[in-house]
Amino acid sequence: MDPLPPRLRRDVVSFVRRSTRMNESQQKAWERLGGRFVIDVERGEMSTAVADGARIDWDEAFGRTAPLIVEIGSGGGDSLVPMAAGRPEANIVAFEVFEPAVASTLGRIGREGIDNVRVVVADGAQALAKLFDDGSVSELWTFFADPWHKARHHKRRLVSGGFADVVAAKLAPGGVWRLATDWEDYALWMRDELDDHPLLTNVHDGWAPRLAERPVTKYEAKGLAAGRTIHDLTYRRVDAAQD
C-alpha cells in the first residue's frame, strides 16, 4: 500500500479566473464543437470546483479504452492539439478554467480533425484528485503554470508536496509527470518540492531534455525572447513495493 494518501486543499486556487467573453470565432467554435468535446462535471461551490463524489466514465466519454493523458492548464491548445495529434493511441483530458481559451482549443481541434481530446472547464488539480481512479493516468502534463512570483503567493503554486501526493496516487506505476517553466525560481521550487518525494523519481536526476513533441508556443517564445531559460522536468511514478 502506498505510504502517502493523496491530500490536496483547493481553498486557494493556482490560477486567476479571467473574463469569459468570447469573440465571434470562439463562440462559433464552442457552439459547433462544445457538445462533442467539452465534458460537463458536477460542480462544487465555486464555478470551477468539482463536487465531491463527481464521477466520469472516461472510456464512455471517448468511446474507447486507451491510455489516459491529462493536461492541467491547456490554455488555447497551442501545445495540447499538436501533441494530441502525435498521440492518436491515447485519450487526452485537458483542464482549463478560461472558457475563451477552451473555445480556441475547440477551433484548433476542428481544424486538425482530431478526436482524442476532451476538455473540462474546471480546476484541474482538484479534478485530478476527484475524477480519476488511482493508478489510471499514464502521463500528466503541467507546462508553464503560473509562477506566482511573490513569496506571499507561493501557496498558490500548482506544484507542491500535497499536489505531488495526488499525482503519485493517480499515476500508474511507471507513469510520468512532465513539467516545464520559463522561470528559474519556479523551476528550483519544483525540484525542492518533488525530488525527495518517496513515490516519484526524477528520471534525469536533474533537468530533462526538452520534450521534442512539445511545440514552442507564443508564450514560450516570449520567455525566450526575454532571455529566460526553459527548464523541463520529468518524474516517474515508482512502485511502492520497491521502496
Could you walk me through the main structural features you see in this protein, from its secondary elements to its overall organization?
With 243 residues, this protein is α/β, with parallel strands linked by helices. The chain is 31% helix and 17% strand. It is built from 8 helices and 7 strands. The protein has helices at 24-37, 58-62, 80-85, 99-112, 124-131, 161-170, 184-194, 218-225; strands at residues 68-72, 91-95, 117-120, 137-143, 171-181, 200-202, 231-237. The chain has a 7-stranded mixed β-sheet. Mean pLDDT is 89; it is low at 1-10.
The structural class is alpha/beta
Would you identify the CATH H-level superfamily? Vaccinia Virus protein VP39
Number of domains: 1
Helix proportion of residues, in percent?
A: 25-40%
List the helices and strands and how they pair.
Elements: H1 24-37, H2 58-62, E1 68-72, H3 80-85, E2 91-95, H4 99-112, E3 117-120, H5 124-131, E4 137-143, H6 161-170, E5 171-181, H7 184-194, E6 200-202, H8 218-225, E7 231-237
Parallel strand pairs: 1-2, 1-4, 2-3, 4-5
Antiparallel strand pairs: 5-7, 6-7
Please give a handful of descriptors for the protein shown.
243 residues; 7 strands; seven-stranded mixed β-sheet; Rossmann fold; alpha/beta
Describe the structure concisely:
The chain is an alpha/beta fold and 243 residues long. It is 31% helix and 17% strand. The protein has one domain: 3-Layer(aba) Sandwich (Rossmann fold).
